[in-house]
Amino acid sequence: MHNQPVFALEQYLLKYEHKAEISLCNSGLDPLTLSQLLAVCDSETRALWEQQMLGYSEPQGHPLLRAEIASLYECSNEVSDGAKQKLAPVLFAGASEAILCGLSALLSADDHCIVITPCYQSLKTVPQKLCETTTVSLQPEDGQWRLDLSAIREAIQPNTRAVVINFPHNPTGALPERAILDELVALARQYGLYLFSDEVYRGLEMPGVEPWPPLANVYERGISVGSLSKLYALPGVRTGWLACPDSAFLEAASGLKHFTSICNNTPGEILSLIALRARHALVPASKAALSSHFEQMEAFLNRHADLFEWIPPQAGCLIFPQLKRGMSAERFALDLLYTQKVLVLPGQVYDFPGEALRLSFAGRTLPQALQGVENFIGQMALVH
User: Which DSSP string do the residues of 180-223 spell out, in sequence order?
Assistant: First the structure.
């Protein structure tokens, strides 16, 4: 396709993932098995699963699933003459499709968009294909990744339509304090901007960290992107959604789905419904596993403080340490892959200017992956 941008992260995985035996950069938890998920069915969802016809589902999503997702939010949609009704989210084939359709419905060639970086590439590339775009980077400062609200204010133009954010953040694990969110909402409201918020890691906050509420709950132009891929460990069901009080926006985004997936897969919708109804059992298990894994990663990074400079994550399962000693992240990643069969992602796949690595502390193979890096570091010491 003419001038089609390359998705750097996916291209890197396509090129190198099959060469690895262990991944140390997975974006989510170990996926649940089908038997694990079916074990938490209630009687209604068991019947739905066993009697499921493999035809098309409703384009906006199965009504029961949409209702279950709506229960995650507290806001209402404006429908007509100021009347309100319970928020009705629109389903998509994963968060990626929700991002594509949502931003395409929101932005036009005459608009300007501000994107917080580094970020999952489609959050930046889609706006760049649609309109003029300005990026504002998170900055490491005083032991945290800081969101610079003054830089966002300075980037606003007369035709600015939206600010695209992602908290909890991929790849740094950042989650600013709640006061920052309140200031951001006040700024957006002052200028009449939409806040397009990728919230796929919401719910995976570290112990003691105050979660942000969904943007759709606290701002009339807040757009929340949700997914079952991370918190629920179900990337394969391909269930994502958009939630927003602006029903006209949701209708426009939903209309674009007719040109993409048309509808979600019918078995995946029932599996998604099972997971959401069982969330009080599934979510604590996910968070407990992640907490244990983080302790292992923390100990490893502290042992090698001479090699890695890192900021502890506040949410999610990713960290973004910087390499010291003038080392190249790309060279480190490839040498590690070819000598130890361990896969990590260099920060260049995020178009990040520093020498950073995306590491994950999710997954049962974390001890083996870290041992591979330990072996590699030992080899480096012998060489130097």
Answer: HHHHHHHHHHHHT-EEEEE-TTTT-BPTTPPPPPPHHHH-TTEE
What domains can you pick out in the chain, each with its CATH number?
Answer: 8-33+280-383 (3.90.1150.10), 55-278 (3.40.640.10)
Residue-wise pLDDT for 126-165, tens only, equals: 999 999 999 999 999 888 999 999 999 999 999 999 999 9
Check whether 85 has a pLDDT greater than 80: no
Taking a C-beta distance cutoff of 8 angstroms, is the pair 242, 225 a contact?
yes
Measured CA to CA, the distance from residue 373 to residue 360 in angstroms comes to 13
Look at residue 354 in the predicted model and tell me its pLDDT.
85
The predicted structure's pLDDT at residue 81: 53
According to DSSP, the residues that pair with 114 across neighbouring strands are 134, 163
d(CA 238, CA 228): 8
More confident residue, 12 or 382: 12
∠ at Cα 149 (147, 154), nearest 5°? 130
Give the pLDDT confidence of 29-55 residue by residue, as tens digits: 999 999 999 999 999 999 999 998 889
- Report pLDDT digits (tens) over 280-333: 989 888 888 888 889 999 999 999 999 999 999 999 999 999 999 888 999 999
- What residues pair up with 225 in beta bridges, in sequence order? 198, 242
User: Can you count the helices (H) and strands (E) in the chain?
Assistant: 14, 18
Separation CA 116–CA 369 (nearest Å): 30
3-state secondary structure of 49: helix
Q: For helices 43-50 and 266-277, give the axis angle rounded to 10 degrees.
A: 170
CB 64 within 8 A of CB 271: no
- Rounded to 5°, angle at Cα 28 from 337 and 71: 170
Q: Please name which of 214, 259, 268, 233 lies closest in space to residue 89, comparing C-alpha atoms.
A: 214
Q: One-letter amino acid identity for 253?
A: A
Q: What is the pTM for the complete model shown? A: 0.93
At 256, list the tokens. Answer: 């674009």
CA 48 from chain centre, in angstroms, equals 29
For 170-208, letters b (16+ CB in 10 Å) and e give: bbbbbbbeeeebeebbebbeeeebbbbbbbbbbbbbbee
* Cis ω before 140 (30° cut-off from 0): no
How far is 164 from 107, CA to CA, in rounded Å?
A: 11
